[in-house]
Specification:
about 130 residues, ATP-binding protein, kinase, HATPase_dom, single chain, globular, five-stranded antiparallel β-sheet, 5 strands, about 30% helix, alpha+beta
Length: about 130
């Protein structure tokens, strides 16, 4: 099967693994979506990205995380790489309360995306999500 070429504006961007990473990642996402003419996806994509980044910062530790954004004709792909090899686990226990402050991040990612997943890497893992254009 032939796929259309992907569009990547920049390679992997490295962000410090701290509380400022989510805001930095969202600014990169906003600029990238604008260039692609997909600014209307920002709210959904930024929610997904914020969950992936905050999970990496909260659970993985390390000094930095990697952010990659690319686009295929019908999908925007967001991935966050960290130094932990512990894979996240989506626990479905029924509807999640909208007032919960934590514990629902991957449920939210699953609900907002076309698909999501993880990859083990030699020095950690990558958690990715794809949003339909």
């Amino acid at each position: 099967m032939d796929y259309p070429p992907t569009t990547t504006l920049v390679g992997e961007v490295f962000l410090p693994c701290d509380e400022q990473a989510s805001g930095q990642a969202r600014r990169i996402l906003s600029a990238t979506l604008d260039v692609w003419g997909l600014g209307h996806l920002f709210e959904t994509a930024s929610t997904v990205l914020a969950e992936l980044v905050s999970n990496a910062v909260r659970h993985a530790g390390g000094r930095q995380i990697g952010l990659t954004l690319w686009r295929r004709l019908t999908l925007v792909h967001i991935s966050v790489r960290d130094c932990s090899r512990a894979l996240p686990c989506l626990i479905m226990t029924g509807p999640f309360p909208t007032t919960a402050e934590s514990g629902r991040g991957l449920q939210l990612v699953a609900a907002l995306t076309f698909r999501w997943g993880t990859e083990l890497l030699p020095g950690g893992k990558r958690v990715w999500a794809e949003i339909a254009v």
